[in-house]
Amino acid sequence: MKLLLNTAHLYMIVGLIAGLYYRELTKARHFTGQSELGVVHTHVLALGMLFFLIVLAVEKQFALSAQRSLFTWFFWMYNTGLAVTVIVMTLHGTLTVLGKSSGEGIALVAGVGHILLTVGLVLFFITAGKALDAGRTPSTATAFAAQEAS
């Protein structure tokens, strides 16, 4: 659980730095238009910090990490996807603010980042589903079955 809290904390720091970077770069360049850089801050805070705080709460309740292999794959796949996505967004936004064009390579790498994020999310839901099923005792299984039937 400490890993999830530390991960959320790291994303909070990165998100705040991203907001500061956006503000200072656009101010220094007198940039008033739209760029990817303007949404990096919120993406990191929502998809990083908030998401991992939610995962922490789910872990506390349902012991996701007991599904060791699935949990490990989810954790690293999601973090890799988010890191790639955020780096590419930052690069693309910085180039926009500097008045330079970004190539097709940036779009390709952004796509890979989003695919990794998607795979990570799918693995999260598979892990959560297995953790929920593993947590059912005979008495709660009957209650769940009756609830799902209605």
From TrEMBL:
Database matches in InterPro entries: DUF2871
Keywords in alphabetical order: Membrane, Transmembrane, Transmembrane helix
UniProt cross-references to Pfam families, sorted A to Z: DUF2871
Residue ranges of the TM segments: 7-25, 37-58, 70-93, 105-126
Keyword Transmembrane helix: yes
UniProt protein name: DUF2871 domain-containing protein
Species assigned in the record: Nocardia stercoris
